[in-house]
Amino acid sequence: MSGPPVPTARPPLSARAPGKCILFGEHAVVHGRPELLLAVDLYTQVLASPSTAMALDDDPAAPREHPYLRRALEDLWPPGAPPLDWRTVSQLPKAAGLGSSAAFCAAVVTALLAARGGAERSEVAERSFEVERGAQGVGSPGDTSASVAGGLVSVNGRSGALLWELTDGDQRWRVRRVPDPGWVWVVAYSGVPRNTAATVRAVSRRLAEPDGPGLLARFEEVALAGIEAILAEDRDGVGRRMSENQALLREVGVSSARLEELLDAVAPVATGAKLTGAGAGGSIVALPRPGREVEAMKRLRRVGAQAFVVRAAPFGASLVLPKAP
Ligand code: MEV
To answer: Rounded distance, CA 280 to CA 34, Å?
Structure first.
């Protein structure tokens, strides 16, 4: 369900992992509420080769300075283990809310676990979450789980096969497989980078106000109804829930004039659209009307966004292996 285990492999080895967008429930998931994520078919790929010293993209200082690689090496590559020369290439814009850091963590963890003797996918998910959370200081395992599992996954949803359960202190998140209806989506980066940790903290403060529990209950209701609409392949229902989710995200202060400009640009050809990820910059996701996908992308490009037509990534984090002879 979550994909095959990561096999043993020796460097040089390459791994790749998909980015993601969040269809319902960002921010609320940090507080244990449900979320639905779509791993998108845009990937980050890393290559780790034996070397005389650690380096990232030719920079020997980078592995100590890059927050995610540093944390992954601290967790999984003990001092004295053979140095690796890392190269990375990505189809995902950075700091855009499209899961570039989760994909980087999942790809690096996949490569390191392969070099350490292989791993079950649940371990890849757990380690990837630890690396991202350790480097970021806050957050849920939603992004890294989507990147490890591929396809659609829910966090704290009510139905679907359980892939894994992750905890942090009192917090517990259950990650489940949600069947992919096979739809085409459009994601678009506004060009305004966002800071996940700062935005998560600001929203947490907002949710600590007296109306916070009521808001969280509404986030939960919308996400659960959105998951049901996906399961029923009800496009209008999904679109309606996306608009409701966007209204809640506006209410907690993470939409912006620029994101609303993108949402207005795509509205005439979309069944639903909302910001995706932390917000306060970053990206939107739209469900275009069938046959209007390219027009949706063009409308977003006309207002200066970096737009992509995407589908669910058919697989999650994995080694890129040469074909057996
Ligand atoms: C970021 O992509 C999604 C947030 O819910 C944070 C998290 O879940 O870690 C805002």
So the answer is: 21
Strands 318-319 and 13-24: antiparallel
* Residue the block writes with tokens 């060009």: 191
Query: 101-129: per-residue pLDDT in tens?
Result: 999 999 999 999 999 999 999 999 999 99
How far, in Å, is the centroid of ligand 1 from the Cα of 116? Answer: 29
Contact 149, 2 (CB under 8 A): yes
What is the C-alpha to C-alpha distance for residues 66 and 63, in angstroms, rounded to an integer? 5
Tell me the pairing of strands 84-90 and 55-56: parallel
Q: How far is the CA of 240 from the centre of ligand 1 (A)?
A: 22
The model carries a pTM of 0.97
Is 277 close to ligand 1, i.e. is its CB under 6 Å away? yes
Which domains, from first to last, does the chain contain? 13-181 (3.30.230.10), 185-310 (3.30.70.890)
Atom nearest to 20 CA in ligand 1: 2
CA 269/CA 186 separation, integer angstroms? 11
Q: How far apart are CA 137 and CA 254, in angstroms?
A: 19
Q: How many angstroms separate the alpha carbon of residue 172 from the centre of ligand 1?
A: 15
